[in-house]
Amino acid sequence: MPPLTFTVGAGELWAVIGPNGAGKSTFVRTALGLSRPVAGAIERRPGLRLAYVPQQSALDAIFPVSVLDFVLMGLQGTGNVTLANPRAYLGRARAALAEAGVGTLERRQLRDLSGGQRQRVLMARALATDADLVFLDEPTAALDASAEQEVLNLIQRIRQLRGAAVVMVTHLVEDGLERADHALLLDRDHRVAFAATAAAMRSAPEFEHIYARFVGRRAQEEEKS
Question: Which pTM does this prediction carry?
Answer without folding.
Answer: 0.87
